Amino acid sequence: MPSETTQPLLRTPDAAILLGLSARTLEKHRCYGTGPAYRKLGGRVVYAVEDLLTWADQGVRRSTSDATANIVHPAKPIDTSVLEKKGAVRR
């Protein structure tokens, strides 16, 4: 029987359904490093529900004029030189 501290873990297809994304989009986010935290168990990729919700919450906005400090990036490589010019990357 699982303990109370055990987080539910979802495979990619189920995690994608939870987020309203396709499994392929979630895979791209994983490859580009723009997606939620994940774990590798053997050859399987699993996501903690808490990590999925935390990542999705980064995109919460109250209006279109809200600041974009915590942006959920699209599933494509991020050009860090552009982000550095905007002051979004801290070193």
How are the SSEs placed, and which strands pair?
Layout: E1 9-11, H1 12-19, H2 23-32, E2 39-41, E3 44-48, H3 49-57, H4 80-86
Antiparallel strand pairs: 1-3, 2-3
Helix pairs in contact: 1-2
- Spatial order of the strands forming the largest sheet: 1-3-2
State the share of residues found in helices, binned by percent. 25-40%
Examine the secondary-structure arrangement and name the CATH architecture.
Orthogonal Bundle
Q: Per CATH, what is the topology?
A: Multidrug-efflux Transporter Regulator, Chain: A, Domain 2
Low-confidence parts: none
Name the shape in a single word: globular
> What is the CATH domain class?
Mainly Alpha
Count every beta strand, where a strand is a DSSP E run of 2 or more residues. 3
What is the N-to-C succession of helices and strands? EHHEEHH
Q: Give the class from helix and strand content and strand pairing.
A: alpha+beta
Question: On the 0-100 scale, what is the average pLDDT?
Answer: 81
The fraction of residues assigned to DSSP E strands is 5-15%
Through-space gap between termini:
44 Å
Instruction: Supply the number of structural domains.
Output: 1
Q: Give the assembly state of these chains.
A: single chain
Rg value: 15 Å
Count every helix, treating DSSP H or I runs of 4 or more residues as helices.
4
Could you describe the 3D structure shown?
With 91 residues, the protein is an alpha+beta fold. It has a single domain (9-60, 74-86), classed as Multidrug-efflux Transporter Regulator, Chain: A, Domain 2 (Orthogonal Bundle), CATH 1.10.1660. It has 4 helices and 3 strands, in the order βααββαα. The model has no long low-confidence stretch (mean pLDDT 81).
